[in-house]
Design brief:
339 residues, alpha+beta, Deoxyribonuclease I, Chain A, six-stranded mixed β-sheet, 8 helices
């Protein structure tokens, strides 16, 4: 004879699994943060959280697996929805880019290779950086936060990079440009009310002119994020008055998922050179790539074609370098055999 079940006693089959409540709290917390990331412009703290789309995506997989094993389908649906929100921000960076100029591949062009690195102003070890520059053989080297020893090392490469532009002192984030191509109308600009220091020059690439800007925005952790956001806006407005082709390079201290970065792209008319090549995170270099975020950028005008981009090896900085190749269209009547 079966023992009757007491009215207040739940059947064993209906008892919650031991991992239910930890999984539920984890799921609710991650889903809440994922949803708040969609309105990041409401508060600087939400914008900072929004830089970690990849990390949120990966973290959501754990409660999703646990809830699926426990057959808690309402939680599963909510977690899948939040996974989709994060995936919608991540996956498009891996989709191939359809160039706006369909005839670009038929025009004569010059390939320009650029090495960009925030080398950290307290980093006096230059050997790793020197090895990479010699190995990569870029046409243009762009350094941010360079140490005096980096400056000495770059000056030693004078024959390879006869044209250079560095501000008079370290107050300007240690910005510097070294180039195989002549530079014209080089100047140090201070943009917006926050006076964002920006190097600006025009590179003579054969018979074409490439407008290059190098900048370093304030960290939203060290100073109020509103200062960085104003710098983005000032830079975007300045770029509206520049005739393409245009290349902007630097440490923007913001990822592509920030609403302020998206507004900057729309305002400037440029697009991120990563598009079609993946996330390519650059900071912090001493963590695993799955923990890093992309805050170092190269943005190009629609008439430029990015053919390759990748991160470099660690140079002793908290940032990884970005190395990329872009194609600059030349006049159709130019005889390439004479170049």
């Amino acid at each position: 004879m079966k023992k009757p079940i007491h009215p207040r006693q739940k059947p064993a089959a209906h008892r919650l699994p031991p991992l239910y409540w930890p999984s539920a709290f984890l799921a609710i917390g991650l889903m809440g943060l994922s949803l708040l990331n969609q309105v990041a412009e409401l508060h600087p703290g939400l914008d900072l959280l929004g830089q970690f789309k990849v990390q949120f995506f990966l973290a959501l997989l754990l409660p999703l697996l646990l809830m699926a094993l426990m057959r808690r389908w309402r939680f599963v649906l909510g977690l899948v929805f939040c996974l989709g929100l994060n995936a919608a921000e991540i996956l498009p960076w891996y989709w191939p880019v359809s160039e706006s100029n369909a005839h670009a591949s038929f025009l004569p062009s010059r390939e320009v290779k650029i090495f960009q690195a925030n080398v950290l102003n307290t980093n006096s070890n230059v050997s790793a950086l020197a090895r990479q520059i010699v190995q990569e053989q870029p046409d243009i080297v762009i350094l941010l936060e360079f140490h005096p020893q980096h400056l000495t090392m770059m000056n030693g490469l004078g024959r390879a990079y006869p044209y250079r532009f560095t501000p008079p002192n370290k107050q300007y984030f240690g910005l510097g440009i070294w180039s195989r191509y002549p530079m014209n109308k080089t100047l140090l600009r201070f943009l917006g009310q926050s006076e964002l220091p920006t190097l600006e020059t025009r590179l003579e690439v054969d018979t074409q002119e490439l407008h290059l800007l190098v900048t370093h925005l304030d960290s939203p952790v060290r100073v109020p994020a509103v200062r960085r956001n104003r710098q983005l806006s000032a830079l975007g407005k300045h770029l509206q008055d520049i005739r393409p082709p245009v290349l902007v390079v630097g440490d923007l201290n913001v990822s592509m998922w920030s609403p302020y970065y998206k507004a900057f792209e729309k305002l400037s008319g440029l697009r991120n050179g990563r598009k079609g090549f993946g996330i390519l995170p650059t900071w912090p270099s001493f963590f695993h790539p799955l923990v890093q975020i992309p805050i170092d950028h190269c943005l190009i005008s629609p008439d430029l074609v990015m053919s390759e981009i990748h991160t470099g090896a660690n140079v002793g900085s908290d940032h990884l370098p970005l190395i990329f190749k872009l194609h600059l269209s030349l006049p159709p009547d130019l005889d390439l055999h004479t170049l």
